[in-house]
Amino acid sequence: DERWSFRANASMGYRSPSIKELFFNWDHLGMFQIKGNEYLRPEKNNYVSFGTEYSNNRLFLSGTLYSNFFRNKIEGVWRIYDMQYNFEYANLESQQLLGSEVLARWRMTDNFTLNGTYSFVDVSKNKGIQVNTSSPHAATGSLEYRYRKPDYQLSAVFNASFMGGKEFDVQDRVFVEEEGRSYDAYFRCDLPAYTLCNVSVSQTFRNRIRLTIGVDNIFNYKPRTLGSGITMFNIPATPGTRAHIQLEFKLDDVKNVFNRKR
After folding, report:
1. What's the rounded Cα separation, in Å, for the pair 241 and 259?
2. pTM reported for the whole predicted model
3. Is 127 part of a structural domain of the chain?
4. What parts of the chain have a pLDDT lower than 70?
């Protein structure tokens, strides 16, 4: 059946650390610092995946299962020294990623199209510590409407993106007063799931003028940092609901209008 296709993949990878990962040293006005590590070793990995696709005139479906095994994985790790956040590059002894992806596109009618994606990833811990900040669950969806005439086009899109909750560990220094010394310790950052929804409507007149009106973050989601300033790097940078209007036209068309009046 030509509507179905299957694929399998197995590969080995080798990556040398980049110049940034080796030597970068950047201080962001004392708020945090990004530091390279000149002693990084190259990372190696083994990747395997299996996927399948189905398609016809109106429907497309795709699914993939994959696994990635790393040795000496180069990873950015957040640490705190003297109340300053440091993002440092380090080699992890081993790391395993297991995941899946699903994509769908359904052309319901000549005017309406529905799109959706979902991904899941499970990242192993490093000596009981979760240094990876990826969210296990993520999904997107959109509904599109398109109407077309020779001298007029209309496009309306509603889309939503979902990011699942996640937990990761950040290093800190804990001072034990009885012993008179400090120790390395980790605290858990726990970020909740969130969904962002947007809508936009675009009209094109005589293939020359385009007017777009849209609203981002319809439901006015405002993230909060919980427990640590590190969370600011793992939440969406949105102040809440925003509306926008955009007008596009060709300068040559405007010039031609003035020339005709002369």
Report:
1. 43
2. 0.81
3. no
4. 81-83, 173, 225-233, 253-255, 257-262
